[in-house]
Amino acid sequence: MSPMIDSLSLNALRCFEVSARLLSFTKAARALHLTQSAVSQQIRTLETQLGYALFLRGHRSLSLTAEGQALLDSASRAFLDIERTLARLSARRRQLQVACCPSFALQWLVPRLDAFRKAEPGIEVKIWAEFPVLAGSGASAVDADVEISYPRTPDPADIELMPEYLGLAGSPAYLERHPGIAARASLDGVVLLHDSLAWHGGSEHAEWEYWAGALQPAWLAQGAHAQFNLVSMAIGAAMSGQGVAVGRRSLMMDELAAGTLKLAVPELLRSPASHCVRLNNASDPRAHAFVRWLTQACAAFSEAAGRDLRKLGAVHVEA
After folding, report:
1. What pLDDT is stored for residue 137 in this prediction?
2. Mean pLDDT across the stretch 278-303?
């Protein structure tokens, strides 16, 4: 590094860059939270060190000399480059914040996060399981870089990850004790387990009413109901033999494949809500990497789930 650069003060260069950009020592002082006299002193010191004037000072005006304009161009580029570098370094130190519906986080995302870590070992992710993102409302308590939601009416900024399908599932033992479901006879003695907060604005029985209204209207007035504020709890209750869950394919696929849950009837109805992702921090390449991985993982899962369930006799019904 040259002796001249070594002798220059970074503070003086910053005062010059802001003053030259704003063409005002007063405005520069406000922007830098300094006094005008302090800014003027820094500029005079810099001009003395350089041996030439950087500003033409009029009675009520300030303009740049040719040397001042040349230095402004270089200084602006240098400070911008420094700011961008510091932002990148800060982003690397900070964990990527991902807000997600609780059940999707527990049942689907967390079991697959290791695949993302292996694909992107330099990116640390912090998952926030939050109820506000159920509606895609943007009311998250976290300044999330990425939001995963299950909205019935997506926001224009939302990217659809995969469709969802609703089905009735119970433990093999429970279904054996209640053969009327498979025979489509009645729901006498059957307890329906479901999420009371399926999507924003929906009723407490929203998913059940949607499924039965389309596929088995006579059942709407039958059966007892047990409600949970997480569909993952309804699925867990079904696994323990407490009833039949009105479940989402993505959240009970592993249990269906393992045989711990079984579809009560073969029809899976496409849900009016879809899993979506929103990129809140488009300037962070880590957020783009996560959304790219998530999109690919959801597409692969959706294709495999449809194929595997068809082998088990399931029928996907498009609404």
Report:
1. 47
2. 95
Residue extent(s) of CATH 3.40.190.290 domains in the chain: 97-317
Q: At what angle do helices 66-93 and 10-22 cross, to 10 degrees?
A: 110
Q: Give DSSP secondary structure letters for 102-166.
A: HHHIIIIIHHHHHHHHHH-TT--EEEEE-SGGGTT-S--SS--SEEEE--SS--TT-EEEEEEEE
User: CA 249 to CA 21: how far, in whole Å?
Assistant: 58
d(CA 232, CA 252) in angstroms, rounded, equals 8
Residue listed under structure tokens 């009016």: 272
CATH architecture type of domain 3-93:
Orthogonal Bundle (1.10)
How far is Cα 312 from Cα 303, in angstroms, rounded to an integer?
15
Phi and psi of 185, rounded to 5°?
-85, -60
Mean pLDDT value across residues 10-33: 94
